[in-house]
bis(5'-adenosyl)-triphosphatase (Didymodactylos carnosus), 169 residues
Amino acid sequence: MSYDFGDHQIDADQVFYISPSKLIYATVNLKPIVEGHVLIVPVRKVVRIKDMTRDELYDLISTAELVGRTLEQNLNATAQNVAIQDGKEAGQSVPHVHCHILPRKAGDFERTNDVHELLEKHDATPLTKTDKKQSQMVVDDDKRKPRTKEEMKEEATKYRQWMQEAEHH
Ligand code: AMP
C-alpha cells in the first residue's frame, strides 16, 4: 500500500496519520529541515490549493492543526511554521499540494526567519558552486542527505503513537 505524492510513492509505513474522512494523510519527510518537519498531503493528486474541494481544504487545515499541536507538545517545541508553496514559482518542487509543518524552538536557527530560505532551497535542483559561496545556510543544507526508508519508518511509528495518544485525550 502506498500514497501518491506527485510522481513519488510514499510507503504506508512512512504515513503516520490519515484523517477520518481519508481525504488527507500526514507523512514524515525525506529531507527534514528540523526535527518533526512533516508534510500534510491530500490523498487525491491535486497540484494547487485552488484544485481542492471544500472538504479537502477543511481537512487539510484541521489535520495540520492536530498534527502540529501533537508534534509541538511531544518534541518540546514552542511554536511552528506552517507553509504551503503553492505553485512552481513560489518554490513548489513536488506538483502535489503539501503543507509543511516545522516545529520551532527558541534559538534553533541563527535568525528565526532563516527557515524560509532553507525551505525554499532544501528540495531544489542541485546547488551550483556560486550558490554554495553565498551563504553558510546553503552549505549546511547541501550536506543534508535524504534519509533511508528505515529511518523514516521508525520516525513514523513514533509519530503514529503520539497521534493515537492525542486522539484519546
Ligand atoms: P516543496 O519544495 O515545498 O515542494 O517541498 C517538497 C518537500 O517534499 C520537501 O520537504 C522534500 O524533502 C519532500 N520530499 C520530496 N520527496 C519526498 C519523498 N519521496 N518522501 C517524503 N518527502 C519527500
The CA atoms of residues 17 and 26 lie 5 Å apart.
